[in-house]
Design a protein that fits this description.
The chain has 18 helices and no strands. By secondary structure, it is an all-alpha fold. The chain folds into 2 domains: 177 residues, no CATH class; 314 residues, no CATH class. 44% of the residues are buried.
Protein backbone atom coordinates (compact mmCIF):
# COMPACT_ATOMS: atom_id res chain seq x y z
CA UNK A 1 0.00 0.00 0.00
CA UNK A 2 1.61 3.21 -1.16
CA UNK A 3 1.44 6.56 0.61
CA UNK A 4 -0.12 7.94 -2.57
CA UNK A 5 -3.08 5.55 -2.61
CA UNK A 6 -6.54 6.76 -1.63
CA UNK A 7 -6.95 3.66 0.57
CA UNK A 8 -3.91 4.66 2.59
CA UNK A 9 -4.93 8.31 2.98
CA UNK A 10 -8.64 7.84 3.67
CA UNK A 11 -8.74 4.42 5.35
CA UNK A 12 -5.44 3.14 6.72
CA UNK A 13 -4.11 6.29 8.38
CA UNK A 14 -7.43 7.44 9.96
CA UNK A 15 -8.16 3.94 11.32
CA UNK A 16 -4.60 3.54 12.58
CA UNK A 17 -4.71 6.90 14.32
CA UNK A 18 -8.12 6.17 15.84
CA UNK A 19 -6.77 2.90 17.20
CA UNK A 20 -3.67 4.71 18.48
CA UNK A 21 -5.76 7.26 20.37
CA UNK A 22 -8.11 4.63 21.84
CA UNK A 23 -5.23 2.35 22.84
CA UNK A 24 -3.55 5.26 24.61
CA UNK A 25 -6.81 6.37 26.23
CA UNK A 26 -7.69 2.97 27.68
CA UNK A 27 -4.27 1.30 28.00
CA UNK A 28 -1.74 4.12 28.29
CA UNK A 29 1.51 4.64 26.32
CA UNK A 30 2.44 0.95 26.45
CA UNK A 31 -0.70 -0.13 24.62
CA UNK A 32 -0.33 2.75 22.18
CA UNK A 33 3.16 1.48 21.31
CA UNK A 34 1.83 -2.06 20.97
CA UNK A 35 -0.80 -0.70 18.60
CA UNK A 36 1.87 1.06 16.52
CA UNK A 37 3.83 -2.18 16.29
CA UNK A 38 0.72 -4.05 15.12
CA UNK A 39 -0.19 -1.36 12.60
CA UNK A 40 3.34 -1.42 11.18
CA UNK A 41 3.17 -5.19 10.67
CA UNK A 42 -0.28 -4.92 9.09
CA UNK A 43 0.99 -2.19 6.74
CA UNK A 44 3.86 -4.38 5.55
CA UNK A 45 1.60 -7.43 5.36
CA UNK A 46 -0.70 -5.59 2.96
CA UNK A 47 2.18 -5.68 0.48
CA UNK A 48 2.71 -9.43 0.91
CA UNK A 49 2.10 -11.87 3.75
CA UNK A 50 5.04 -14.15 2.82
CA UNK A 51 7.38 -11.15 2.76
CA UNK A 52 5.97 -10.05 6.12
CA UNK A 53 7.07 -13.45 7.42
CA UNK A 54 10.63 -12.72 6.26
CA UNK A 55 10.61 -9.30 7.93
CA UNK A 56 9.19 -10.72 11.17
CA UNK A 57 11.71 -13.56 11.24
CA UNK A 58 14.53 -11.07 10.66
CA UNK A 59 13.31 -8.91 13.54
CA UNK A 60 12.92 -11.83 15.95
CA UNK A 61 16.43 -13.13 15.23
CA UNK A 62 18.11 -9.72 15.41
CA UNK A 63 16.24 -8.73 18.57
CA UNK A 64 17.26 -11.97 20.27
CA UNK A 65 20.87 -11.86 19.14
CA UNK A 66 21.17 -8.16 19.98
CA UNK A 67 20.06 -8.75 23.55
CA UNK A 68 22.40 -11.72 23.89
CA UNK A 69 25.30 -9.58 22.69
CA UNK A 70 24.34 -6.79 25.08
CA UNK A 71 24.41 -9.24 28.00
CA UNK A 72 27.88 -10.60 27.15
CA UNK A 73 29.78 -7.75 28.77
CA UNK A 74 32.08 -10.16 30.56
CA UNK A 75 32.88 -12.04 27.34
CA UNK A 76 33.85 -9.42 24.75
CA UNK A 77 35.49 -11.99 22.46
CA UNK A 78 32.32 -14.07 22.27
CA UNK A 79 30.23 -10.93 21.78
CA UNK A 80 32.50 -9.79 18.95
CA UNK A 81 32.27 -13.16 17.19
CA UNK A 82 28.51 -13.26 17.63
CA UNK A 83 28.24 -9.72 16.23
CA UNK A 84 30.30 -10.67 13.19
CA UNK A 85 28.16 -13.75 12.60
CA UNK A 86 24.91 -11.82 12.98
CA UNK A 87 26.03 -9.08 10.58
CA UNK A 88 27.15 -11.74 8.09
CA UNK A 89 23.74 -13.44 8.37
CA UNK A 90 21.94 -10.14 7.68
CA UNK A 91 24.17 -9.38 4.71
CA UNK A 92 23.66 -12.94 3.42
CA UNK A 93 19.89 -12.55 3.64
CA UNK A 94 20.10 -9.23 1.81
CA UNK A 95 22.47 -10.75 -0.74
CA UNK A 96 20.21 -13.71 -1.44
CA UNK A 97 17.10 -11.70 -2.11
CA UNK A 98 18.65 -8.67 -3.79
CA UNK A 99 21.86 -9.81 -5.47
CA UNK A 100 21.50 -13.53 -6.35
CA UNK A 101 20.50 -12.90 -9.95
CA UNK A 102 23.25 -10.32 -10.37
CA UNK A 103 25.80 -12.87 -9.19
CA UNK A 104 24.31 -15.36 -11.64
CA UNK A 105 24.73 -12.84 -14.46
CA UNK A 106 28.37 -12.27 -13.48
CA UNK A 107 29.00 -16.03 -13.35
CA UNK A 108 27.42 -16.46 -16.78
CA UNK A 109 29.55 -13.68 -18.22
CA UNK A 110 32.76 -15.13 -16.79
CA UNK A 111 32.21 -18.80 -17.51
CA UNK A 112 29.30 -19.00 -19.96
CA UNK A 113 27.55 -21.46 -17.65
CA UNK A 114 24.05 -20.49 -18.75
CA UNK A 115 22.60 -20.43 -15.25
CA UNK A 116 18.99 -19.30 -15.07
CA UNK A 117 17.71 -16.53 -12.82
CA UNK A 118 16.08 -17.48 -9.55
CA UNK A 119 12.40 -16.64 -9.15
CA UNK A 120 12.82 -14.44 -6.07
CA UNK A 121 10.38 -11.85 -4.73
CA UNK A 122 12.51 -9.10 -3.20
CA UNK A 123 11.02 -7.85 0.10
CA UNK A 124 10.22 -4.16 -0.28
CA UNK A 125 12.56 -1.97 1.74
CA UNK A 126 14.91 -4.87 2.56
CA UNK A 127 17.99 -2.64 2.30
CA UNK A 128 16.49 -0.20 4.78
CA UNK A 129 15.29 -2.60 7.48
CA UNK A 130 18.42 -4.76 7.16
CA UNK A 131 20.80 -1.87 7.75
CA UNK A 132 18.67 -0.45 10.57
CA UNK A 133 18.97 -3.80 12.35
CA UNK A 134 22.70 -4.03 11.68
CA UNK A 135 23.03 -0.65 13.40
CA UNK A 136 21.08 -2.11 16.34
CA UNK A 137 23.51 -5.03 16.61
CA UNK A 138 26.52 -2.71 16.56
CA UNK A 139 24.94 -0.55 19.28
CA UNK A 140 24.39 -3.72 21.32
CA UNK A 141 28.06 -4.63 21.03
CA UNK A 142 29.07 -1.09 22.00
CA UNK A 143 26.81 -1.08 25.08
CA UNK A 144 24.53 1.62 23.67
CA UNK A 145 21.18 -0.16 23.76
CA UNK A 146 18.45 1.66 25.63
CA UNK A 147 15.77 -0.31 27.51
CA UNK A 148 13.19 -1.71 25.12
CA UNK A 149 10.57 -4.39 24.57
CA UNK A 150 9.98 -6.38 21.40
CA UNK A 151 7.04 -4.12 20.54
CA UNK A 152 9.33 -1.09 20.76
CA UNK A 153 11.88 -2.94 18.65
CA UNK A 154 9.24 -3.50 15.96
CA UNK A 155 8.39 0.20 15.94
CA UNK A 156 12.08 1.05 15.75
CA UNK A 157 12.95 -1.35 12.93
CA UNK A 158 9.67 -1.48 10.97
CA UNK A 159 7.70 1.69 11.77
CA UNK A 160 5.29 1.89 8.84
CA UNK A 161 6.14 5.44 7.70
CA UNK A 162 9.79 4.50 7.07
CA UNK A 163 10.05 0.69 6.70
CA UNK A 164 9.78 0.76 2.90
CA UNK A 165 12.13 3.64 1.97
CA UNK A 166 13.55 5.29 5.06
CA UNK A 167 14.64 7.54 6.65
CA UNK A 168 17.16 5.21 8.32
CA UNK A 169 16.61 5.63 12.06
CA UNK A 170 19.01 4.97 14.91
CA UNK A 171 18.12 2.84 17.90
CA UNK A 172 18.88 5.55 20.45
CA UNK A 173 16.85 8.33 18.83
CA UNK A 174 13.80 6.04 18.52
CA UNK A 175 14.00 4.41 21.96
CA UNK A 176 14.44 7.74 23.73
CA UNK A 177 11.04 8.75 22.39
CA UNK A 178 9.35 5.41 23.03
CA UNK A 179 10.74 5.35 26.58
CA UNK A 180 9.43 8.83 27.39
CA UNK A 181 7.19 8.63 30.47
CA UNK A 182 4.17 10.01 28.68
CA UNK A 183 3.07 11.60 25.43
CA UNK A 184 -0.36 12.87 24.35
CA UNK A 185 -2.08 10.57 21.87
CA UNK A 186 -4.50 13.17 20.56
CA UNK A 187 -2.93 16.54 19.92
CA UNK A 188 -4.69 18.67 17.31
CA UNK A 189 -1.68 20.93 16.87
CA UNK A 190 0.65 17.98 16.28
CA UNK A 191 -1.79 16.38 13.84
CA UNK A 192 -2.05 19.60 11.87
CA UNK A 193 1.74 19.85 11.64
CA UNK A 194 2.00 16.23 10.51
CA UNK A 195 -0.77 16.56 7.93
CA UNK A 196 0.84 19.74 6.59
CA UNK A 197 4.18 18.03 6.09
CA UNK A 198 2.49 15.01 4.54
CA UNK A 199 0.57 17.26 2.15
CA UNK A 200 3.71 19.10 1.09
CA UNK A 201 5.49 15.81 0.45
CA UNK A 202 2.51 14.47 -1.49
CA UNK A 203 2.54 17.51 -3.77
CA UNK A 204 6.29 17.16 -4.31
CA UNK A 205 5.64 13.62 -5.50
CA UNK A 206 2.48 13.82 -7.61
CA UNK A 207 2.62 17.40 -8.87
CA UNK A 208 6.37 17.75 -9.48
CA UNK A 209 8.21 14.42 -9.66
CA UNK A 210 5.52 12.62 -11.64
CA UNK A 211 5.09 15.58 -14.01
CA UNK A 212 8.71 15.56 -15.15
CA UNK A 213 9.12 11.76 -15.11
CA UNK A 214 7.90 11.21 -18.71
CA UNK A 215 10.67 13.42 -20.10
CA UNK A 216 13.35 11.57 -18.18
CA UNK A 217 11.87 8.20 -19.19
CA UNK A 218 11.68 9.27 -22.83
CA UNK A 219 15.38 10.13 -23.01
CA UNK A 220 16.64 7.08 -21.09
CA UNK A 221 14.37 4.71 -23.01
CA UNK A 222 15.42 6.32 -26.27
CA UNK A 223 19.09 5.85 -25.45
CA UNK A 224 18.43 2.22 -24.49
CA UNK A 225 16.82 1.58 -27.88
CA UNK A 226 19.59 3.26 -29.85
CA UNK A 227 17.91 6.53 -30.81
CA UNK A 228 20.33 9.30 -31.74
CA UNK A 229 20.06 12.22 -29.34
CA UNK A 230 21.99 15.45 -29.32
CA UNK A 231 23.54 17.16 -26.32
CA UNK A 232 20.63 19.45 -25.51
CA UNK A 233 18.06 16.67 -25.35
CA UNK A 234 20.40 14.36 -23.45
CA UNK A 235 21.21 16.96 -20.79
CA UNK A 236 17.51 17.84 -20.44
CA UNK A 237 16.72 14.17 -19.86
CA UNK A 238 19.51 13.81 -17.31
CA UNK A 239 18.50 16.97 -15.43
CA UNK A 240 14.85 15.89 -15.59
CA UNK A 241 15.71 12.63 -13.86
CA UNK A 242 17.76 14.46 -11.23
CA UNK A 243 14.76 16.64 -10.40
CA UNK A 244 12.38 13.69 -10.57
CA UNK A 245 14.43 11.66 -8.10
CA UNK A 246 14.92 14.62 -5.78
CA UNK A 247 11.24 15.54 -5.53
CA UNK A 248 10.16 11.88 -5.45
CA UNK A 249 12.42 10.80 -2.58
CA UNK A 250 12.31 14.13 -0.78
CA UNK A 251 8.53 14.00 -1.03
CA UNK A 252 8.47 10.49 0.40
CA UNK A 253 10.72 11.53 3.27
CA UNK A 254 8.49 14.52 4.05
CA UNK A 255 5.43 12.28 4.05
CA UNK A 256 7.15 9.80 6.36
CA UNK A 257 8.17 12.54 8.79
CA UNK A 258 4.63 13.94 8.69
CA UNK A 259 3.15 10.54 9.49
CA UNK A 260 5.60 10.07 12.33
CA UNK A 261 4.61 13.45 13.74
CA UNK A 262 0.93 12.47 13.70
CA UNK A 263 1.78 9.40 15.80
CA UNK A 264 3.98 11.37 18.24
CA UNK A 265 7.31 10.13 16.83
CA UNK A 266 9.91 12.47 15.39
CA UNK A 267 11.98 11.02 12.56
CA UNK A 268 15.35 12.28 11.33
CA UNK A 269 15.74 14.72 8.46
CA UNK A 270 16.66 13.18 5.12
CA UNK A 271 17.01 16.19 2.79
CA UNK A 272 18.26 19.73 3.28
CA UNK A 273 18.21 21.43 -0.14
CA UNK A 274 21.06 19.31 -1.59
CA UNK A 275 20.88 20.91 -5.02
CA UNK A 276 22.29 24.09 -3.46
CA UNK A 277 25.53 22.37 -2.46
CA UNK A 278 28.77 23.85 -3.81
CA UNK A 279 30.94 20.78 -3.23
CA UNK A 280 30.29 17.06 -3.39
CA UNK A 281 30.94 16.52 0.31
CA UNK A 282 28.31 19.10 1.24
CA UNK A 283 25.93 17.48 -1.25
CA UNK A 284 26.09 14.21 0.66
CA UNK A 285 25.55 16.02 3.95
CA UNK A 286 22.28 17.26 2.45
CA UNK A 287 21.10 14.36 0.22
CA UNK A 288 19.74 11.13 1.76
CA UNK A 289 21.22 12.37 5.03
CA UNK A 290 20.35 9.31 7.12
CA UNK A 291 22.13 6.99 4.69
CA UNK A 292 25.19 9.24 4.73
CA UNK A 293 25.03 9.31 8.53
CA UNK A 294 24.78 5.51 8.73
CA UNK A 295 27.72 4.80 6.44
CA UNK A 296 29.81 7.51 8.08
CA UNK A 297 29.15 6.29 11.62
CA UNK A 298 29.43 2.55 11.05
CA UNK A 299 31.91 2.27 8.18
CA UNK A 300 33.82 5.39 7.10
CA UNK A 301 34.86 6.52 10.59
CA UNK A 302 36.28 3.10 11.47
CA UNK A 303 38.18 2.88 8.17
CA UNK A 304 39.52 6.43 8.50
CA UNK A 305 40.71 5.88 12.07
CA UNK A 306 42.39 2.59 11.18
CA UNK A 307 44.01 4.21 8.17
CA UNK A 308 45.31 7.11 10.24
CA UNK A 309 46.81 4.76 12.86
CA UNK A 310 48.48 2.58 10.24
CA UNK A 311 49.87 5.50 8.25
CA UNK A 312 51.39 6.99 11.41
CA UNK A 313 52.84 3.66 12.50
CA UNK A 314 54.33 3.15 9.07
CA UNK A 315 55.54 6.76 8.97
CA UNK A 316 54.00 7.45 5.61
CA UNK A 317 54.25 10.82 3.89
CA UNK A 318 51.50 13.40 4.11
CA UNK A 319 50.09 12.16 0.81
CA UNK A 320 50.23 8.55 1.99
CA UNK A 321 48.41 9.45 5.20
CA UNK A 322 45.76 11.24 3.17
CA UNK A 323 45.24 8.28 0.87
CA UNK A 324 44.99 5.77 3.72
CA UNK A 325 42.90 7.86 6.12
CA UNK A 326 40.62 9.81 3.77
CA UNK A 327 40.73 8.96 0.06
CA UNK A 328 40.55 5.16 0.19
CA UNK A 329 37.95 5.06 3.01
CA UNK A 330 35.79 7.46 0.98
CA UNK A 331 36.05 5.37 -2.18
CA UNK A 332 35.37 2.13 -0.32
CA UNK A 333 32.42 3.59 1.61
CA UNK A 334 30.72 4.99 -1.46
CA UNK A 335 31.38 1.81 -3.41
CA UNK A 336 29.39 -0.07 -0.77
CA UNK A 337 26.75 2.68 -0.71
CA UNK A 338 26.35 2.27 -4.46
CA UNK A 339 26.01 -1.51 -4.17
CA UNK A 340 23.53 -1.00 -1.30
CA UNK A 341 21.22 0.78 -3.74
CA UNK A 342 20.92 -2.08 -6.18
CA UNK A 343 22.27 -5.14 -7.94
CA UNK A 344 24.04 -4.17 -11.14
CA UNK A 345 27.24 -2.76 -12.54
CA UNK A 346 25.61 0.65 -12.88
CA UNK A 347 25.30 0.88 -9.09
CA UNK A 348 28.89 -0.26 -8.62
CA UNK A 349 30.13 2.41 -11.01
CA UNK A 350 27.81 5.02 -9.48
CA UNK A 351 29.33 4.37 -6.06
CA UNK A 352 32.86 4.54 -7.45
CA UNK A 353 32.10 7.80 -9.26
CA UNK A 354 30.99 9.47 -6.04
CA UNK A 355 33.77 7.90 -3.99
CA UNK A 356 36.39 9.24 -6.38
CA UNK A 357 34.63 12.62 -6.47
CA UNK A 358 34.68 12.83 -2.66
CA UNK A 359 38.34 11.76 -2.54
CA UNK A 360 39.21 14.36 -5.17
CA UNK A 361 37.45 17.11 -3.24
CA UNK A 362 39.14 16.14 0.02
CA UNK A 363 42.50 16.10 -1.73
CA UNK A 364 41.84 19.52 -3.26
CA UNK A 365 40.99 20.88 0.17
CA UNK A 366 44.01 19.20 1.77
CA UNK A 367 46.73 20.12 -0.71
CA UNK A 368 45.66 23.41 -2.28
CA UNK A 369 44.57 26.80 -1.02
CA UNK A 370 42.72 27.69 -4.18
CA UNK A 371 39.03 28.36 -3.67
CA UNK A 372 36.83 28.25 -6.73
CA UNK A 373 34.22 30.96 -7.34
CA UNK A 374 30.89 29.84 -5.89
CA UNK A 375 29.03 29.66 -9.24
CA UNK A 376 31.82 27.53 -10.74
CA UNK A 377 31.98 25.28 -7.68
CA UNK A 378 28.20 24.80 -7.82
CA UNK A 379 28.32 24.02 -11.56
CA UNK A 380 31.05 21.40 -11.09
CA UNK A 381 29.19 19.84 -8.17
CA UNK A 382 25.86 19.64 -9.99
CA UNK A 383 27.50 18.31 -13.15
CA UNK A 384 29.02 15.53 -11.06
CA UNK A 385 25.65 14.80 -9.45
CA UNK A 386 23.75 14.75 -12.76
CA UNK A 387 26.34 12.53 -14.48
CA UNK A 388 26.33 10.17 -11.52
CA UNK A 389 22.55 9.88 -11.70
CA UNK A 390 22.75 9.05 -15.40
CA UNK A 391 24.68 5.93 -14.40
CA UNK A 392 22.28 5.39 -11.46
CA UNK A 393 19.16 5.53 -13.68
CA UNK A 394 20.43 3.78 -16.80
CA UNK A 395 19.30 0.14 -17.16
CA UNK A 396 22.82 -0.90 -18.13
CA UNK A 397 26.30 0.50 -18.55
CA UNK A 398 25.97 0.60 -22.35
CA UNK A 399 22.97 2.93 -22.15
CA UNK A 400 24.79 5.18 -19.68
CA UNK A 401 27.81 5.40 -21.96
CA UNK A 402 25.55 6.24 -24.89
CA UNK A 403 24.01 9.08 -22.94
CA UNK A 404 27.40 10.35 -21.80
CA UNK A 405 28.50 10.36 -25.44
CA UNK A 406 25.40 12.30 -26.43
CA UNK A 407 25.82 14.74 -23.53
CA UNK A 408 29.36 15.39 -24.75
CA UNK A 409 27.90 16.60 -28.06
CA UNK A 410 29.01 13.73 -30.28
CA UNK A 411 25.51 13.64 -31.84
CA UNK A 412 25.17 17.42 -32.13
CA UNK A 413 24.38 20.28 -29.79
CA UNK A 414 20.70 21.04 -30.44
CA UNK A 415 17.59 19.96 -28.57
CA UNK A 416 15.66 18.14 -31.33
CA UNK A 417 16.32 14.43 -31.74
CA UNK A 418 15.15 12.12 -34.50
CA UNK A 419 12.59 9.50 -33.50
CA UNK A 420 12.13 10.79 -29.94
CA UNK A 421 8.79 11.96 -28.58
CA UNK A 422 9.97 14.86 -26.49
CA UNK A 423 8.30 18.25 -25.97
CA UNK A 424 11.46 20.24 -25.32
CA UNK A 425 9.60 23.46 -24.50
CA UNK A 426 7.45 21.79 -21.85
CA UNK A 427 10.42 19.91 -20.44
CA UNK A 428 12.47 23.09 -20.18
CA UNK A 429 9.60 24.90 -18.48
CA UNK A 430 9.34 22.18 -15.85
CA UNK A 431 13.11 22.16 -15.34
CA UNK A 432 13.12 25.93 -14.78
CA UNK A 433 10.15 25.86 -12.38
CA UNK A 434 11.33 22.85 -10.39
CA UNK A 435 14.91 24.07 -10.35
CA UNK A 436 13.76 27.43 -8.99
CA UNK A 437 11.76 25.68 -6.25
CA UNK A 438 14.75 23.54 -5.25
CA UNK A 439 17.29 26.37 -5.39
CA UNK A 440 15.41 29.48 -4.30
CA UNK A 441 12.44 28.62 -2.09
CA UNK A 442 12.72 27.53 1.56
CA UNK A 443 12.47 23.78 2.04
CA UNK A 444 9.82 21.95 4.02
CA UNK A 445 11.50 22.02 7.42
CA UNK A 446 12.41 25.67 7.01
CA UNK A 447 8.79 26.57 6.29
CA UNK A 448 7.79 24.65 9.44
CA UNK A 449 10.74 25.75 11.57
CA UNK A 450 8.62 27.30 14.33
CA UNK A 451 7.17 23.82 14.92
CA UNK A 452 10.46 22.02 14.08
CA UNK A 453 9.10 18.62 12.93
CA UNK A 454 12.24 16.45 12.99
CA UNK A 455 14.49 15.03 15.69
CA UNK A 456 17.64 16.72 14.37
CA UNK A 457 18.97 19.90 15.92
CA UNK A 458 17.71 22.97 14.05
CA UNK A 459 20.53 24.87 12.27
CA UNK A 460 20.95 28.46 13.38
CA UNK A 461 20.41 29.83 9.87
CA UNK A 462 17.01 28.15 9.47
CA UNK A 463 14.82 31.14 10.48
CA UNK A 464 16.71 33.39 8.07
CA UNK A 465 16.48 30.80 5.29
CA UNK A 466 12.72 30.54 5.77
CA UNK A 467 12.25 34.19 4.92
CA UNK A 468 8.60 35.21 4.88
CA UNK A 469 7.28 31.73 4.07
CA UNK A 470 6.64 30.59 7.65
CA UNK A 471 3.88 28.18 8.64
CA UNK A 472 1.99 28.79 11.88
CA UNK A 473 -0.80 26.68 13.42
CA UNK A 474 -3.62 29.07 12.63
CA UNK A 475 -6.92 28.86 10.76
CA UNK A 476 -5.36 30.32 7.63
CA UNK A 477 -2.58 27.73 7.71
CA UNK A 478 -5.12 24.95 8.21
CA UNK A 479 -7.08 26.12 5.17
CA UNK A 480 -3.91 26.35 3.10
CA UNK A 481 -2.95 22.83 4.20
CA UNK A 482 -6.39 21.62 3.12
CA UNK A 483 -5.90 23.22 -0.31
CA UNK A 484 -2.44 21.68 -0.72
CA UNK A 485 -3.70 18.24 0.34
CA UNK A 486 -6.68 18.53 -2.03
CA UNK A 487 -4.39 19.44 -4.92
CA UNK A 488 -2.18 16.47 -4.15
CA UNK A 489 -5.06 13.99 -3.80
CA UNK A 490 -6.65 15.24 -7.03
CA UNK A 491 -3.43 14.40 -8.89
CA UNK A 492 -2.97 10.90 -7.49
CA UNK A 493 -4.65 9.13 -10.39
CA UNK A 494 -1.60 9.26 -12.65
CA UNK A 495 0.93 8.81 -9.85
CA UNK A 496 3.67 6.25 -10.21
CA UNK A 497 5.28 4.29 -7.39
CA UNK A 498 8.06 5.85 -5.35
CA UNK A 499 11.45 5.32 -6.98
CA UNK A 500 13.12 4.15 -3.76
CA UNK A 501 10.65 1.32 -3.23
CA UNK A 502 12.91 -0.90 -5.35
CA UNK A 503 15.89 -0.30 -3.04
Amino acid sequence: MSFTSLQFIFCFVPLAYLGFVLAHRFGGPTQAINLLATVSLVFYGLWSLPLLGILLASMIVNFTVGNVIANLNANPRIAKNLLAGAIAANVALLGYFKYSNFFIDVANQLSETGLEHLNIAVPIGISFFTFVQIGYLIDAANGKLLPHTFAKYIVFSAFFPCVTAGPLVLQQEMMEQLNAPRFPAFDARRVLIGVTMFAMGLCKKVLLADSIAPFADSVFNGAQHGLAMNAGTSWMGAVSYTLQLYFDFSGYSDMAIGLGTIFAIKLPLNFNSPLRATNISDFWRRWHMTMTRFFTAYLYSALAMAGMRNSMNWRWSRFGRFMLSAALPSIYTFLLAGIWHGAGWTYVIYGLMHGIAIATFLGWREFTRLKLPTPLAWLITMSTVVCGLVMFRAPDVSTALTLFSNMAGLQGLGIDSVGLTFDSAQAMSLIVVMGAIALLLPNTQQILYQEWPVIDHMPEETPLAAGLVVWKPRLGSALLTACVMTAGIASIGSSSGFLYYKF
